[in-house]
Design goal:
The complex is a heterodimer.
Chain A (H helix, E strand, L loop, with lengths): L1 H14 L3 H5 L3 H23 L12 H30 L3 H30 L7 H30 L6 H19 L3 H6 L1 H12 L6 E16 L19 E5 L7 E2 L5 E2 L3 E7 L6 E7 L5 E2 L8 E3 L6 E6 L13 E19 L1 H34 L2 H4 L6 H29 L1 H4 L1 H33 L2 H36 L1 H6 L1 H23 L7 H18 L2 H12 L3 H25 L3 H9 L4 H37 L4 H11 L3 H29 L1
Antiparallel strand pairs in A: 1-10, 2-5, 3-4, 5-9, 6-7, 6-8, 6-10
Helix pairs in contact in A: 1-6, 3-4, 3-6, 3-7, 4-5, 4-6, 6-7, 9-24, 10-20, 10-22, 10-23, 10-24, 12-14, 12-15, 15-17, 18-20, 19-20, 19-22, 20-22, 21-22, 22-23, 22-24, 23-24
Chain B lengths: L1 E9 L5 E10 L4 E6 L5 H8 L7 E6 L2 E2 L5 H8 L2 E4 L11 H6 L8 H4 L6 H13 L15 H14 L4 E5 L7 H17 L3 E5 L3 H7 L2 E6 L2 E7 H6 L2 H8 L9
Parallel strand pairs in B: 3-8, 3-9, 6-7, 7-8
Antiparallel strand pairs in B: 1-2, 1-4, 4-5, 9-10
Helix pairs in contact in B: 5-6, 6-7
Classes of the chains: A alpha+beta, B alpha/beta.
The complex binds adenosine-5'-triphosphate (ATP) and magnesium ion.
Chain lengths: 707, 254
């Protein structure tokens, strides 16, 4: 009876992993087993069924192969397991022996599959050499999965038996399966990496030690020239024969007049006049090269007409023979032409000590990168400092107002912003509009709109707060309810529009969504007003409204969103905005810096001692005074440290941003890599490494001193 | 005159630090608040100048309801109430002089002060206050370079330049040695006697209480459990003190 139950439970688990355990009473265990097994199976099948990475991977449905492998390994495992169980029954009930037996069983599995694996794979789909790895991975995946399944069946059996059970096997198998899956997904191919390493050696060498390319070299060469006339019609006067000279290289060519070799269409050469060449005054023991210069001044090495590299004798002389090479004469040339024969002996490259053009370029670009980083850090700081105060919990959380004050503040914000906008528009058009004076108009607009909004917020907020204290209750209620309804409507309207254009447009298409946009906006405004009316009711006339918390939350949200977008993405935005170059990189880094520094700064503010703030407040200081006296002195060293740290990061980042066109050394680096100039790329890499580690060191030691 | 009426403070985490506390302090009194650690002394003092917001009750000072003031009005009241802290609460990175001048922030032109600029006469006033506490020669040192006792004297100088009508002192000598404790308390006493400044001071040591207080109130778990005059305290034995105060009571012994 009991045995029947166990068999039933095991069968259940064979069908659905974990079901048997659950039926046997271990519901939670069954759930985990089900979860683990099904996730791993699902992933395995998904990965196995993925289309091949390479076009020649013509196995088609690798999922089918996988299933065959899975089934085969399952049966193989079952067989092994049964054999093992039968053996171990005989041997002992002893715990230690049992453990040893398990280990032996695992060894047996590995051995059997190592032996049987290739056969198995061969049966299912004969692999080409480079596919072997892939097939092996599939096989291991199949074995692991089959093992997991089997483990689950046996586990159900044991649970039903009421024996003690452990998770060890499960965890090990799941871990192994995940690793194998990972290998396949990442495409880790160790054999390939080893096979093809050698090809990267030269490039790696160039990049790792590029310093030869950092300098200019002067090539000193010995050179002697003789003139030869061709063709050689009777009656013409050939150039004179050279005479050997003492103390300098010389060459004597005879005759000085002859016929060119001719090469027909098939490339067959008919020799012209044979020249005898004698030379001297060269460095003994080294080779000289013979070059031919045609009448229009093109120098080349003659081919197929005799030796062009000759060993110089111990006395510095040599003798050789050469047919006059085939030379394509320009069509306008008529009659005899004067050619030149050069004998060249390249000397050692002479170190000039001057930087090469590329090195200078790289240095310039490096400076550019450092400056991009520096400027972006400064610009980021300018914006990050005020934002960080708004994003500091300890400064903002006690900022509150009455609901009436909130109404005044919001209306003041809108009104002030609007007035600022109007004024900016007027003054801006007097200055000549955004086209003519973009910077002054934009700055003006920014200051006026921002200033107007802040001013309106403060003035009207305070005014209404105070005024309403003198008004009768019904008037206060009117301000509150009316104001809140308007605020709610004002917030709801754009939300409604956004819903129509953003979400509905996905399902319905842009046009249909646009048709209902106004309605949606109205609905949004209505709902917003209702919600805010409820708030007005709930908060009552005292409130308080913690606007500080709202400002804090919104600022934090903005900072977090901006920060979570990589500078590389901002770099792309920058390039689209202002075109390729350092300015784009600057914009990208500035945006990211504002967010990153804003967060760091605000955390520095949050970690200051509250004592001095209380002390300064106790003297009757206002908010700004409290910040200047109690907050700023405490956070300044941290701000400096974070800014330095950010500069360091920004320089590093600016090299990366250069890769997408943001200027600086990254820009140069990617160009050189694309032009296969690895030595020059190596220069850039080295400069980056040196700069970054130097900055890192400096900023680290300065920071240590500051904080 | 300071009147505290039914003052209750419940912290955000639900701790009831003060419960229905009412008492009156006449101008020129030296009121000492005693009580166990955690009994609500700091909370009480902080509520009076609203560094923390009272939950319920009123605080009337010369018939102004401090609890009902808006921010600007509160600032005007605060500048006339000095506060001396147990942990001094100096701005460590600023020079001593600026720490003292901070006491004038409620009076001077706020815009200039943002650039740490103070008119000549204000600087003079600060130097005089430093002279009073015997620290004139340290005026240009960083506050962090001072010893504990010196820091507390700077804290008192900061309160002095406020020309306060009332001084709240939250365990001003708790982290100082006995000799220093007496010298600091001496400053407070002089302020009280020579300038008629009302003083509310929380203390731990019985002998200090007996030596300086004109009146005492005892707090326990946020309630007033004892009120006594100068004479009551002088007559009080250690045993009685311990009864109100708890086992932690001790003598400074100097
Ligand atoms: N910011 C706070 N948030 C929550 N609870 C607080 C806070 N500050 C104090 N408390 C609690 O309020 C109670 C009174 O604290 P308070 O600091 O006023 O005591 P105290 O008498 O000044 O003690 P001590 O002698 O140790 O300074 C204590 O139980 C304390 O834990
Ligand atoms: Mg305290």
């Amino acid at each position: 009876m009991k045995v029947l139950k166990r068999i039933g439970v095991a069968l259940l688990s064979l069908l659905v992993p974990g079901l048997g355990q659950a039926v046997a009473g271990a519901v939670r265990r069954g759930f985990y087993v089900f979860l683990g097994t099904s996730i791993l199976s699902g992933l395995s099948i998904f990965v196995a069924a993925q289309r091949a990475r390479f076009p020649e991977e013509v196995y088609g449905t690798s999922a089918r192969i996988f299933f065959i492998l899975l089934l085969s390994s399952f049966f193989l495992l079952v067989a092994l397991r049964l054999i093992y169980l039968a053996l171990i029954r005989r041997v002992a009930q002893d715990e230690i022996l049992y453990r040893v037996g398990e280990g032996l069983f695992l060894v047996a599995v590995v051995v059997v599959f190592t032996l049987a694996g290739p056969q198995l794979i061969e049966r299912v789909a004969p692999p080409q050499a480079e596919r072997l790895l892939y097939m092996t991975l599939l096989l291991v995946m199949a074995v692991v999965l089959a093992g997991l399944w089997l483990w689950n069946v046996q586990d159900a059996w044991r649970v039903a038996e009421g024996r003690e059970v452990s998770w060890n096997g499960f965890i090990a198998l799941v871990l192994l399966g995940t690793l194998v899956l990972g290998t396949r997904v990442v495409g880790i191919d160790l054999p390939k990496a080893i096979r093809e390493y050698r090809e990267t050696e030269r490039i790696l060498g160039d990049i790792l030690w590029p310093w030869r390319a950092a300098f200019d070299y002067k090539a000193t060469e010995l050179r002697a020239t003789a003139k030869v006339q061709a063709p050689c019609p009777p009656g013409s006067t050939p150039p004179p024969v050279n005479q050997p000279k003492e103390g300098e290289p010389w060459v004597v060519v005879t005759p000085t007049c002859g016929e060119l070799s001719v090469r027909d269409e098939k490339g067959k050469l008919t020799y012209g006049t044979l020249l005898t060449i004698r030379g001297g005054g060269f460095v003994p023991g080294k080779k000289v090269k013979i070059k031919w210069e045609n009448p229009i001044g093109n120098e080349f090495t003659p081919r197929g007409v005799g030796p062009t590299e000759i060993e110089v004798g111990p006395d510095g002389t040599f003798t050789t023979q050469l047919y006059i090479p085939d030379v394509v004469i320009p069509s306008f040339a008529k009659g005899p032409q004067i050619h030149k024969l050069h004998v060249v002996q390249p000397g050692a490259l002479e170190f000039t000590g001057k930087l090469s053009r590329e090195m200078k370029l790289a240095l310039q670009a490096m400076l550019e990168s450092i400056m991009i980083g520096l400027m972006a850090t400064f610009a980021g700081m300018v914006f990050a400092v005020p934002m960080s105060f708004l994003a500091a919990r300890n400064l903002m959380f006690n900022l509150r107002t009455s609901p009436q004050g909130l109404v005044g503040g919001v209306f003041g914000l809108v009104l002030g912003g609007y007035v600022g906008w109007q004024v900016a528009a007027r003054v801006g058009s007097m200055l000549g509009g955004i086209e003519k004076a973009p910077v002054s108009v934009a700055t003006l607009g920014f200051l006026l709109v921002g200033g107007g909004a802040v001013l309106g917020f403060r003035l009207l907020g305070r005014a209404l707060d105070r005024l309403s204290q003198r008004l009768p209750t019904w008037a206060r209620a009117a301000i509150r309810y009316g104001g809140f309804a308007l605020i709610g409507a004002g917030l709801g309207w754009p939300l409604g529009l956004g819903y129509a254009h953003g979400l509905l447009a996905i399902a319905w298409g842009e046009e249909q969504a646009a048709a209902v946009a106004t309605q949606m906006a109205q609905i949004g405004a209505g709902l917003g007003a209702l919600a805010w009316l409820y708030l007005a009711y709930r908060w009552g006339e005292e409130g308080p409204v913690y606007i500080g918390q709202w400002i804090y939350t919104v600022t934090r949200l903005i900072l977090n969103v901006v920060r979570s977008i990589e500078p590389l993405i901002w770099g792309l935005v920058g390039v689209i905005w202002v075109g390729l170059g350092p300015f784009a990189g600057f914009i990208a880094l500035t945006i990211h810096t504002i967010a990153a520094l804003g967060k760091l700064y605000s955390e520095a503010i949050e970690s200051i001692h509250p004592g001095p703030i209380e002390a300064i407040q106790s003297t009757g200081a206002n908010r700004l005074q409290t910040i200047m006296f109690a907050v700023l002195p405490q956070v300044l060293p941290h701000f400096t440290a974070f800014s330095l740290y950010r500069w360091d990061i920004n320089v590093r980042m600016s090299t990366v941003i250069g890769l997408v066109g943001g200027g600086g050394i990254g820009f140069l680096l990617i160009q050189w890599i694309r032009q296969v100039q690895y030595e020059h790329a190596g220069l850039a890499v080295w400069l980056i490494a040196i700069t970054v580690s130097t900055l890192d060191f400096i900023s680290a030691s300065v920071r240590k001193r500051l904080v | 005159m300071l009147r505290v009426e039914h003052l209750t403070k419940v912290y955000e985490n639900g701790t009831v630090a003060l419960k229905d506390v009412s008492f009156t302090v006449e101008d020129g009194e030296f009121l000492v608040i005693i009580g166990l650690s955690g009994s609500g002394k700091s909370t009480l003092l902080r509520c009076i100048n609203r560094i923390i917001e009272p939950t319920e009750g009123r605080i009337l000072w010369n018939d102004i309801d401090i609890t009902a003031l808006n921010e600007a009005e509160l600032r005007r009241v605060r500048r006339e109430i000095g506060f001396v802290f147990q942990e001094f609460n100096l701005v460590e990175r600023l020079p001593v002089l600026l720490n003292v001048l901070a006491g004038r922030l409620g009076y001077v032109n706020p815009w200039w002060s943002l650039f740490y600029y103070f008119p000549k006469e204000e600087q003079e006033r600060a130097l005089v206050a430093l002279e009073t506490v015997g620290l004139r020669e340290k005026a240009y040192n960083r506050a962090s370079d001072l010893s504990g006792g010196q820091k507390q004297r700077v804290g008192i100088a900061r309160a002095l330049v406020q020309e306060p009508k009332m001084l709240l002192a939250d365990e001003p000598v708790a982290s100082l040695d006995p000799v220093l404790a007496h010298s600091i308390m001496g400053y407070l006493e002089r302020l009280n006697q020579e300038r008629g400044v009302t003083i509310l001071c929380s203390l731990h040591y019985l002998d200090l209480v007996q030596r300086y207080a004109t009146r005492v109130i005892g707090l326990r778990d946020g309630r007033i459990v004892y009120e006594g005059t100068r004479e009551d305290i002088r007559r009080m034995t250690d045993e009685e003190f311990k009864q109100i105060y708890g086992e932690e009571a001790q003598r400074l012994g100097a």
